[in-house]
Amino acid sequence: MLNGDVLMRVDESGRVIEWNRPAQELFGWSTEEAVGQFVTALVDEAAADEQWRRARVEAAAPVLVKPVLTGSSVVWEVRAAGDAPSGQDVAILRAMFTQSPVGLHVLDDQLRILRMNTATRALRDAPTAQLLGRVFTEAYQLAEPEQEEAAARRVLESGRPALDRLVRGVSSLPGQTRSIYSVSYVRLENARGDVLGLVASAVDVTARERALQRLSVLDAVRKQVGEHLDVITVCEELVKAVVPAFTGIAVVEVIEDVVRGQDPPLVPVDRDVPLRRAAFRGQMSAYPVGDVRRLPYGTPFARVLSDLRPRLLSVEEDSMWLSADLARADAIRQSGVHSLIVAPLALRGEALGVVSFYRQQGEEPFVDEDMALVADVCAHAALCIDNARRYARERTIAATVQRRLLPQQPEVPSTLDFSHLHLPGLEGGGAWFDVISLVGARTALIVGEVAGRGIAAATTMGQLRTVINSLFALDLEPDDLMARLNDTAARLAAERGALPAGDPLHREPLTAGCLIAIYDPVELTCTIVRAGLPEPVAVLADGSSTALNVPAGPLLAGTGNAPFPATTVALPAGSTLVIGTAALAEKALSSSAPLRPLLDDAAGQNLADLCDTLAYALREDDRSGDALVLLARTKALPSRQILSRSLPADPEAAPLARAAVRRQLRAWNVGDEDAFTTELIASELVGNAVRYGAAPIRLRLIRDRALTCEVSDASTSAPHVKHARTIDETGRGLFIVATLADSWGTHYHTDGKTVWAQQHTSAQPTPAPGEPSGGRLGEDEPML
């Protein structure tokens, strides 16, 4: 008898239904004699024959009995099994099928269950009779039976085991937790290699997988939430991290004061405190995102803000709290919500808001273990929201400081039109500009930038702006002015370096850039000096544009003693000067910048409209800090508003100057009192130039918004006011000028100096007869 030979087949009642040759040789009965008999009777009768028993003792071989499914019934097949299993093998098999926690199933080649152990019955909580003979995937009610059956058949065909496959079951009742199984398949073969079926093991890993899922959700929240320092963005990050990984619907409602950066209220929160629906993710929202309203009393959402205790609720049709908020109740019903967790966003006993987690049809209900996860998620989110709130407050303070330190209503010069575009960075910055009217109808244009962000950059910007406004009162040359501004910046940097090492400002070096341009509408020139900022661009009236080649000086407060060279360029009337910070250099100022064509079209365009066009073209991600650009369109001072005379360096200069001034003031309709004062000022300034200065001497009278009298000479000696005694015959000239003029001063230049005095009068210049474009007196006109 060969190993694997089929001896017989027996039905469920024990009767022989098939009797093969090996059985005939073993027992001695023919097929006709054995079929239909009870197998126990045949075996007992053979065993009673002493001669047969003695003949078979040494030749006895083990047999294998296994069930075989035929149609809807099970028959038992008896085969020759070869060597008999040892006692240890039997003990192992008995333990595996009676005590192992792993569900074991013996499947035939049709994946029907032939045998299973006791753990299997515990997994399915069903009697063995209901599972035997059923297809494995159907017996377990798997969520995707076709996919699992295909995997099992691949093992049958290839022989390669499929191990630790995670499969999900289908819950039999609504809201019931679905089981998760770890299933493995191994092909079952006999000694000859014939495929008999599969051994399938199944372990209920629902608790393990739920725990891993919660850890995964918490890890995602910690990685994704808090990347941005904005309250609303943090809330959006939160709902994105938990939907759908943890819940089908999530709503975050934050107290409105928190969104604005103010301090959160203490618990219990007053009923009238409004909350903003900051973020929502799911199917249907009761209120739009951004809606601000108070939470209705008598709901779990309001109760959470009274004691900061999270709540797990089963949503039923008759839940009392649904009637307190009909819009929310309607959205809950339409979304098929059956389970809800409401948790507070709180920190240090202060309430920040509420988070609501909803599970709907197709999702398992929340369980108590989910409450621990919700607590950890909300604790992390609350910390991130509070950081964003504090940052928002600091940013608001910094932005307010910066706005207050910028020019509020800069004076518009008569010889210049200007407009500016300031796009503050998200964290504030130190960019600023100034437009300052100077004597002689000149105008100073300043653009500066302090590196850094927040209050430190804004306050430093205010300090530098105050210094530069004070320095302009000294009427310095632009390069000298920039050098003195650099000295101030260096002292501020030294003060930072002297701060304690723990001060954050100690670790942030002071770096600043500045550009100063002084436009002269009489000479139609512009003198420019820059420290670190990009080269300015000039767009001429004919539409041509060019970058002004101005040498770059070092950054303010930098190391070294490099100079700040000034460059004077011709700037015809109608030209547009464009000055910007570094944030705009690559986007608009350089010749290859994508927005440079917008500037090239600046000729004849309204400057405010051009600023709007630039703002529309600049995207938020195009810049990382403050972006500021100043546009200035030049005008020429009409010739009728200027008197210019060369004077001799002798005592006759004063009477000549008085006569020229008297004639010009008469043409300008200046009143007698103002005219007398101006004549006296001009006479004293010319007299001082003759007495203490050097030739050539020149008188210039400029009528703009103020009346300016200038006397230039080639000497660089510094004039100063003397206090003459009663008997002194001289020494009262500058004292008289300082008394009569609204302001006076001295401007030094390469050819000497200019002493000027300025008065404010009410009369406006009128064109001279026959001179429509102005009544400026030429050098060849006689002086009376």
From the structure above, extract its key features.
about 775 residues, alpha+beta, six-stranded antiparallel β-sheet, six-stranded mixed β-sheet, 23 helices, 31 strands, elongated, disordered C terminus
Main beta sheet, described? 6 strands, antiparallel
End-to-end Cα distance, whole Å, is: 152 Å
Number of strands: 31
Radius of gyration: 49 Å
Low-pLDDT residue intervals, each spanning 5 or more residues: 724-729, 767-784
| Portion of residues within helices | 25-40%
| Sequence of strands across the biggest β-sheet | 12-11-10-15-14-13
- Tally of separate helices: 23
- Beta-strand portion reads 25-35%
- The geometry reads as elongated
Please identify the structural class as seen in this structure.
alpha+beta
Mean pLDDT: 83
Please, could you describe this protein's structure?
This protein has 784 residues and is α+β, with helices and mostly antiparallel strands. The protein has 23 helices and 31 strands. The strands form six sheets. Strands 12-11-10-15-14-13 form a six-stranded antiparallel beta sheet, with helices on both faces. Strands 17, 18, 19, 20, 23 and 24 form a six-stranded mixed beta sheet that branches. It has a five-stranded antiparallel beta sheet with strand order 6-5-9-8-7, with helices on both faces. Strand 8 (180-189) and strand 9 (195-204) form a beta hairpin. Helix 10 (206-224) packs antiparallel against helix 11 (231-242), helix 15 runs parallel beside helix 16 (454-472) and helix 22 (672-692) packs antiparallel against helix 23 (733-740). The N and C termini lie far apart (152 Å). The model is unreliable at 724-729 and 767-784 (pLDDT under 50).
